[in-house]
Amino acid sequence: MSRPGSPGSQPGPERTLPAPATGGVPADVGTAFAVPASPEQALAELHAGNRRFVTGAPRHPNQDAGHRAAVADGQHPFAVIVGCSDSRLAAEIIFDRGLGDLFVVRTAGHTIGPEVLGSVEYAVTVLGTPLVVVLGHDSCGAVQAARTADATGTPPVGHLCAVVDAVVPSLRRAAAEGVDDIDGIVDIHIAHTVEAMLGRSAVLAAEVAAGRCGVVGMSYRLTAGEVRTVAEVPARTADAPEAAASAALA
Asked: What is the pLDDT of residues 72-107, one digit of tens each?
């Protein structure tokens, strides 16, 4: 994969890094584990990690001192997470990952502006990250705030207005589709964010078109801890992510 300072480099073959140490003992130098290098592999790894989290059997990979030292001179995250800032939506925890695995960008309601898009483009083109995930969740406060402001005609104070303005187009789409429940609106907002990201970033769209990157919208259930796919570009068969995740768990 490309390293910082080499924009536009294409991802190479599947990478390996030293295996994480266990029990405080440094990892053996000759031991390595595979780092996902394709959108399909990255998505399968996220599904597998989330399943471990949901079932109460996390492995907490790549969180030891040995791995910390191994990634100190460079990062090769396998997924970008553009997530909501909600404190209950910590990506490394819900996907059971560690240092250097995820490139995380968080804003209230996973709203996207130039800085967010630039961060995504950096991860995809400079770091060679093969997957971008828009991560929302049920009962999203940003969506609820936008809904209230839109219904009452009273905009929020300060910069929160920018968050509300970014969510309003999703409210309009939901109304046009007859969707009224908050979680249905959240799903529409996640899908809208995926579309907006690709529409506003020619760089990201080109990487997707070339097959070097995929973009997925996911919704997280706060109580159950599960993620589910809401949108996917390029689209795959409905059972592909689950089948890949099962293979990764095997």
From this structure: 988 999 999 999 999 999 999 999 999 999 999 999
| 84 backbone dihedrals φ, ψ, rounded to 5° | -70, 150
Query: How does DSSP classify residue 25?
Result: B
CA-wise closest residue to 146 among 113, 178, 108: 108
d(CA 148, CA 160): 13
DSSP letter at 38?
S
149: which 2 tokens?
Answer: 């402001």
For residue 219, give the nearest of 201, 192, 247 by alpha carbon: 192
Asked if 81 and 51 touch (Cβ cutoff 8 Å), the reply is: no
Q: What is the pLDDT of residues 20-66, one digit of tens each?
A: 333 333 333 333 457 898 999 999 999 999 999 999 999 999 998 98
Query: And the tokens for 21?
Result: 């140490």
Residue type, 232: E
Q: What is the reported pTM? A: 0.81
Lookup result for tokens 């490394």: 92
**Domains in the chain, please, with CATH?**
15-249 (3.40.1050.10)
- CA–CA distance, 127 with 38 (Å, rounded to integer): 13
Residues whose CB is less than 8 angstroms from the CB of residue 48 and which lie 6 or more positions away in sequence, other chains included? 245, 248, 249
Describe the strand order of the beta sheet including 79-84 as a list of residue ranges. 102-107, 79-84, 131-137, 214-220, 227-233
